[in-house]
From TrEMBL:
Transmembrane portions of the chain: 65-84
Annotated GO CC locations: Golgi membrane
Keyword flag Membrane: yes
Species name: Oryza meyeriana var. granulata
Domain of life, source organism: Eukaryota
Gene Ontology molecular function, alphabetical: hexosyltransferase activity
Entry EC number(s): 2.4.1.-
Pathway as given in its UniProt record: Protein modification; protein glycosylation
Protein name: Hexosyltransferase
Cofactors named for this entry: Mn(2+)
Top EC class for this record: transferase
Amino acid sequence: MKLRHWCVPQSATCQFILEKPPFFQPKSTFDRATHTVYRVRTYSAMKPHGLPAPASTQRWSSVPAAALLLLPVALLAAVLLVVYPNEFALQASLAGAAACGDQGGVTERVGGDVQAAPEFRLLIGVLTLPSRYERRHLLRMVYSLQQPEVAPRALVDVRFVFCRLGSPEDRILVALEAMRYGDVVELDCPENMDNGKTHAYFSSVPSLFGDRAYDFVMKADDDTFFRLPELSGSLGRAPRQDLYYGCMVPCDYVRGWNEYMSGMGYVLSWDLVEWIVAAAAEIKGRTDGPEDRTLYSWLRRGGRGKNRVDVKPAMYNFPGRHPCSHEFIPDTIAVHQLKDDGRWARTLRYFNFTAALKPSKFYPMIN
């Protein structure tokens, strides 16, 4: 049997012309041009009844139906992979983290980059007065500019701590700081320096920041400049338990029985902060007096703070005649008694603190 076919343009119907069909019921078609009668059978291109489909139809029918269904999905996935590569990377990393979840988290993702988790977390509580707006502004700049050098190793949070706000002016102006920076802490105590403010600070930290929020907690004065990279390097080598860290005084002689860390800035490990909260009944009535010496008396009576780390001469007072004073040294951790802008400027100049400033036509005299 010989088969010839033709298709009507823009139609889904093809006609197959048969010579001597053995089993079809033909219809007669008369060609007026040639005066020839053809016997034909008309078929729908979509419903071939036993006859071979045209060549193009055969090629498509040989492809499995499942492959045709999956083709749009594969194309969509390819487009998403090209347009949103980071999302696929994130999913892969999350899957890997889930597979290794029993090993503990040692990395974290920040801004799309995987970074190592910090070795430790430090809270610096700067005890200050509500009215010292300019000093807080200076300290914010000084400490925030050092954060990039510290971040790979340690997480360092700085908070400005004072007692209840009294004046209407402070309530408004400190509220602006809270709205803009979110780094102020108001304690439930009357404003003071040596009558329980330090105790109120340490005993409030766990309830304010949460259980085990930090590895170390520092109390610092607002006239102390800390070099955060040097501080974090030193704390990284210190014990994480029962730690009492700072500049031990007196500086000019060894007393032995009553040596304590200077109030310029000292660090307690988290377990000691928790102990201060738990020992509230024993400490009650013993919070008045020079705050640094008073805190040491709590530790001594409770048999705590046995891991003492005295970092003299890296922590000292501004150069002068005080026994704890000496000239600036390169490996400085902290300088105390920066009472005015002149002392701050001299200290920052020695440590070349503004070296990263880029030249600009807008401030030629600074450069």
